[in-house]
UniProtKB/TrEMBL annotation:
The keyword Hydrolase applies. Keywords: Disulfide bond, Glycoprotein, Hydrolase, Metal-binding, Metalloprotease, Protease, Secreted, Signal, Zinc. This is Metalloendopeptidase. GO terms for molecular function: metalloendopeptidase activity; zinc ion binding. Residues 1-148 form the Peptidase M12A domain. It is found in: Secreted. It comes from Heligmosomoides polygyrus. Its cofactor is Zn(2+). The keyword Signal applies. Its main location: secreted. It holds the Pfam family Astacin.
Length: 228
């Protein structure tokens, strides 16, 4: 249960460091965002902890997806890579997510700039350490707090591409990356376009971002490449 007194207090701390309890402690709960923690992605990561997320590379099934090189990790950071058990970690049947906001990067907390995390599929090396909240993050947090149950499966919109009805408006879907629209059947608006694949190489040019601002701002382009 959550009472009116339960709240998260964001504090700047007395120096460097970002830190949060994992899950609800009860009452006034502190989350530290010290020097170096001003990025939106870092704040989102710590809020993920406060909402109940462990690090993704601490999932009980992580050894099926990544290898952890403890010798390359700073001694004071090794506890961040402890593997949870099936008793402490429930993932609601959702797949291991290299692109989760809760997943460290390949050389995070490395003592020698050598990999601290090695994905079994080497193509995922640059996927880890994403600054974005992933679709699986959204799906899992909605499972964890039973928000998906707010939408009646019989009367809610039928989502495509693995999307799910939005708990605050069951007539539209929350969609995985690259999809949009009421039922996740459309390309997201904005930068990008739909192109047809050819046997010859093509160059796609787009301009994105605002070069004169120092704000932490992201622009995303979505291309749909069709065959045939």
């Amino acid at each position: 249960m959550v009472s009116a007194e339960d709240r998260i207090v964001v504090a700047p701390g007395n120096g460097n460091g970002c830190w949060s309890y994992i899950g609800k402690v009860g009452g006034e709960q502190t989350m530290l965002l010290g020097s170096g923690c001003e990025l939106v992605s870092i704040a989102a990561h710590e809020i993920g902890h406060a909402l109940g997320f462990f690090h993704t590379m601490s999932r009980h099934d992580r050894d099926s997806h990544v290898s952890i090189n403890m010798y390359n990790i700073r001694p004071d950071w090794r506890s961040q890579y402890n593997r949870e058990t099936t008793d402490t970690n429930h993932n609601y049947g959702l797949p291991y997510d290299m692109g989760s906001i809760m997943h460290y990067g390949m050389t995070s907390s490395s003592v020698n700039m050598q990999p601290s995390i090695v994905p079994h599929n080497r193509k995922h090396q640059r996927t880890m350490g994403s600054p974005f909240i992933s679709f699986i993050d959204l799906s899992m947090i909605n499972e964890h707090y039973n928000c998906k149950a707010l939408c009646n499966r019989r009367t809610s919109v039928k989502c495509e591409r693995g999307g799910f009805p939005h708990p605050r408006d069951c007539r539209r879907c929350i969609c995985p990356g690259g999809y949009a629209g009421t039922r996740c059947t459309e390309r997201p608006k904005g930068c990008g376009r739909t192109v047809n694949a050819t046997e010859e190489w093509k160059t796609l040019n787009d301009t994105l971002g605002v070069w004169w601002t120092e704000r932490e701002e992201y622009s995303i382009c979505h291309y749909w490449i069709k065959v045939g």
